[in-house]
């Protein structure tokens, strides 16, 4: 079974002897040769020609990887948040749930999700993505289908617990997976497009729920039950197809030629990500992540945006309904804010990649979100409150993708990056417990406390954390450029320097 650990073997198998450069070779003969350096087959080309080849390669990767991964995450986010759509279709009344029991059912998902999430990137590394990702999809699709068959609070709690366990591996796994394919200056837009599927799922989820709820009474099931059953079965089908559609790491990508596989690996080397070719798992990578201050600032920033994300996603239909609209109209009115958020998410991803300035976008967009919830908090007019939900969504979704890209950019070493992403995302999702309990029924229809808490998270953690990390990274980059960190590599071999990862003095952080 080949994983990214085998990069070094692939790299060597794709190199050629000096006397053979420029000639054609039998692929089996090349594979038998082992040389320590990767030959640049494009070295004789002009800079313009090399750039054109790079663009074609990245376009090929985009077409093969991104659309299918977006579909997977759309299904994931749809399944974890459709309980909000089910609620306004009578879930709480039919299962005789108290407000506390409904909040507990929301919260338990985030507990199991957060507990399992840090381990999943290690499992993804040990297993192949083409096995791990589809398997988790099939499992959570089955659990979602079973949610449509529950008859009481205990059954709903059990289903939500196992749903969290099954879904835990997808988001951090795919972020880590993409970081093994793209350069740091390219990954932000791809993560933004990928995460925009969450916003699309909010739009699509409202439309789908409105349509499925009309099946109420079919087979003796309520409309909310059919939402779970049909969306769960769709996920199972997508998961089964994914066994054929999800590709493994670059060294084993069947849709790439030998030369293109070498180009992908060489591009990562040039982007100071070459240690990914050599690493084997060691607990030292876990401790390195825990000792890194960027892990903790990343956790604080992501907590600020994740709490807002889940509170918004879980309760938007209820908030709109309590503005005086019918359940069906509330489902439909929840669509436009998500669409606006998806557009801004992709725009921020593109601009952050082009400028190399991720922190500034977090800072600016967080203020948009805080302004939106301030509008909802301060006004009693439904039109103003509804307009505020647009700004709220636009201030949340772009920062999720941008924060994860920022974290991934600034951690080198495949295992350390995987652990760090697991910790950052896991901590953010654990705070989903807060999201599940801030919009209380007794606070309807204004939900002043809930909106106020979200403003606090956006300002203190997302805005404040982004400012702090930006300033600290800027200071560290200045030290590295001034040579202050050069003593870190004195007396070390080239291999030892390479294995320092983001502690190498020539590794410049993304601001």
Low-confidence stretches: 1-37
Helix vs. strand class:
mainly alpha
Tell me about the largest β-sheet: none
Beta content: under 5%
How many strands?
0
**Helix and strand succession?**
HHHHHHHHHHHHHHHHHHHHH
What is the tally of helical segments?
21
Q: Specify Rg, calculated over alpha carbons.
A: 24 Å
Question: What is the distance, rounded to the nearest whole angstrom, between the alpha carbons of the first and last residues?
Answer: 37 Å
The geometry reads as globular
| Average pLDDT score | 82
What are the SSEs and their pairings?
Blueprint: H1 7-13, H2 27-32, H3 47-87, H4 91-94, H5 99-126, H6 129-147, H7 153-167, H8 170-179, H9 184-212, H10 223-245, H11 258-270, H12 283-291, H13 293-321, H14 327-333, H15 335-355, H16 358-378, H17 382-409, H18 414-430, H19 432-435, H20 448-481, H21 494-498
Helix pairs in contact: 3-9, 3-10, 3-13, 5-7, 5-8, 5-18, 6-7, 6-8, 6-10, 8-18, 9-14, 9-15, 9-17, 12-18, 13-14, 13-17, 13-18, 13-20, 15-17, 16-17, 16-20
């Amino acid at each position: 079974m080949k994983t990214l650990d085998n990069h070094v073997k692939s790299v060597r198998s794709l190199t050629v002897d000096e006397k053979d450069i420029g000639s054609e070779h039998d692929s089996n003969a090349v594979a038998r040769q082992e040389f320590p350096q990767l030959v640049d087959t494009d070295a004789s080309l002009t800079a313009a020609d090399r750039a054109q080849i790079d663009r074609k390669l990245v376009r090929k990767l985009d077409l093969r990887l991104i659309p299918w991964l977006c579909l997977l995450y759309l299904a994931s986010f749809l399944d974890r948040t459709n309980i909000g759509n089910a609620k306004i279709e009578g879930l709480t009344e039919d299962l005789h749930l108290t407000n506390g029991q409904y909040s507990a059912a929301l919260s338990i998902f985030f507990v199991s999700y957060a507990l399992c999430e840090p381990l999943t990137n290690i499992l993804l590394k040990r297993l192949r993505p083409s096995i791990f990702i589809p398997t988790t999809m099939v499992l959570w699709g089955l659990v979602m289908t079973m949610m449509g068959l529950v008859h009481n609070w205990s059954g709903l709690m059990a289903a939500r617990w196992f749903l969290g366990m099954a879904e835990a591996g997808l988001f951090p796994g795919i972020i880590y997976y993409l970081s093994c394919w793209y350069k740091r200056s390219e990954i932000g837009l791809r993560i933004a497009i990928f995460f925009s599927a969450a916003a699309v799922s909010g739009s699509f989820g409202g439309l789908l729920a409105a349509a499925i709820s009309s099946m109420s009474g079919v087979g003796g099931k309520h409309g909310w039950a059919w939402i779970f059953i049909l969306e769960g079965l769709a996920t199972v089908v997508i998961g089964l197809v994914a066994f054929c559609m999800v590709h493994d790491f670059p060294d084993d990508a069947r849709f790439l030629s030998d030369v293109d596989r070498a180009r992908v690996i060489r591009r990562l080397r040039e982007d100071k990500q070459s240690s990914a070719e050599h690493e084997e798992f060691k607990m030292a990578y876990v401790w390195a992540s825990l000792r890194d201050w960027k892990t903790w600032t990343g956790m604080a920033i992501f907590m600020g945006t994740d709490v807002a994300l889940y509170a918004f996603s879980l309760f938007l239909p209820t908030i709109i309904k309590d503005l005086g609209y019918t359940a069906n109209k509330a489902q439909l009115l929840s669509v436009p804010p998500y669409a606006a958020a998806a557009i801004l998410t992709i725009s921020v991803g593109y601009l952050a990649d082009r400028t190399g300035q991720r922190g500034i976008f977090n800072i600016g967009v967080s203020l948009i979100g805080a302004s939106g919830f301030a509008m909802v908090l301060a006004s009693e007019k439904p039109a103003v409150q509804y307009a505020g939900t647009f700004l709220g969504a636009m201030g949340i979704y772009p920062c999720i993708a941008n924060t994860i890209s920022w974290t991934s950019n600034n951690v080198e070493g495949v295992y350390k990056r995987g652990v760090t992403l697991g910790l950052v995302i896991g901590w953010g999702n654990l705070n989903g417990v807060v999201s599940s309990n801030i919009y209380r029924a007794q606070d309807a229809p204004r939900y002043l406390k809930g909106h106020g808490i979200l403003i606090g998270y956006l300002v203190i953690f997302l805005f404040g954390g982004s400012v702090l990390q930006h300033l600290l990274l800027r200071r560290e980059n200045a030290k590295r450029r001034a040579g202050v960190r050069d003593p870190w590599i004195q007396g070390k071999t080239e291999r030892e320097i390479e294995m320092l990862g983001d502690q190498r003095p020539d590794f410049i952080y993304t601001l």
